[in-house]
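Quick one: co-fold with flavin-adenine dinucleotide.
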Amino acid sequence: MRRIGIIGAGQAGLYLGISLVDAGYAVTLFSEFTPESILNGKLMATPNLLPDALQLERQLGLAFWDDQFPGCNQLCNDVCDSDGNLALVVSSTLERCWQAVDQRLKFSCWMQEFVRRGGELVIRTMTPRDLEECVQNYDLVVVSTGRGSLKTLFERDAQRSIHGKPKRHLAAVIVTGLKGESMAEHTIKLTTLPGIGEIFQFPFYDKSKNSSHTIFFEAHPGGTMDRFSQIQSGQQLLEVSKKLMEQLTPWDYEVIKDMELTDELAWLRGVITPTVRQPVGRLPDGARVMGIGDAVILNDPIAGQGANNATKMAHLVVQRIIDHGNRRFDESWMQAVFDEFWEYCQYANALADCLLTPPAHLQELVVAMAQNPEVARDYINGVNHPPSLFPWFFEPEETKKYLAQKNTKGVGSDYSTSQLSQTQLLVRAR
Ligand SMILES: Cc1cc2nc3c(=O)[nH]c(=O)nc-3n(C[C@H](O)[C@H](O)[C@H](O)COP(=O)(O)OP(=O)(O)OC[C@H]3O[C@@H](n4cnc5c(N)ncnc54)[C@H](O)[C@@H]3O)c2cc1C
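Sure, here it is.
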């Protein structure tokens, strides 16, 4: 039986580990934390899983929360003008639900499930020296430690990493007590404030198995929203969140003004510099390990791709491990699997880059989305599979052709409230 060692019990490592155990491999998963300490620990991220990745989880029998929490079937994007006034509303039904489950609940359950299915779980914070030992004992060692320190084993790919510093400063809270909570029960809401940032609000299945909400800020560094750097507690972030929404999205303030944290650790703040790394890591003794997930393709969460990429990459790695039979997992095999994944993932990265630094033609597209529900639907559902957005979303000339096919112009070079009546937009009563 072939032996696989996996470092990191997150989205990529757990999906990979459970799949390989099911496929008959002897798998050891090294995690720095126990399931209990993950469950009782701090919020790490607030990912929405999209339909294709959810389907992969379901095929593995890991969708433990589908019945209680199906997720969202509607996305609504309030787009403000440069003065902060609501200018456009883009809204679409989601063809299949998106779902956000607290990673603390998910990972702690999946770790137990991994052991139940026959995997070996070792609680240890792994170092490069530990990896050298691992390489002796396993046919393949995969590093899926996310943003953890082992990522430095993988050299930065300067060509594919276009950002040298974070484009947004991030903060999120998990909350309960929103007014009219049931109204927004199945809706992901995004507010875009040009030059200031983005605010996401969506239903969230929290670690206590209750349907709560997350409010997640993506602030332009140094801008009005960027007030997170000194925050030391969830209560402080909660208060700052309320003040920001009162100031920036007063139309939403009534809904959130009495919100409370679901638990004292249900908050995060941080920064991410989007980075692509080489997939083959070199250990001090010269041995090779393979990187997957955030360890090698790290994105700002603005386009909601990281956890989805982690799952899809892990899924591909499983297929290629099986295909490889009893042959050696050498450097060229690792590189080939990564290159195959990059064929897909380059579009996920391009999408995130586009949203972080919107090109001029995006404005035309956003106006078109507000005018024509078909355009909104193509974009919003395309986020699930970013190659479907190519080339029409990314290239200005192709955007023009695409809009012509849809008989839509995307009028106006600037958002203005007067466009609301011109384009007969759907503006919900507030
Ligand atoms: C605020 C926020 C919102 C997000 N929203 C979305 C979204 O909407 N959609 C989306 O797809 N993605 C989103 N993401 C990104 C997503 O959470 C990550 O891309 C995803 O979790 C990456 O999976 P991973 O397995 O690579 O890493 P992780 O899930 O981070 O797992 C890494 C694991 O490795 C462990 N580890 C680290 N170092 C060591 C070590 N030395 N030894 C042993 N174990 C170690 C860690 O404890 C952790 O459990 C968001 C991220 C943030 C921060």
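If it helps, The two ends are 61 Å apart (CA to CA).
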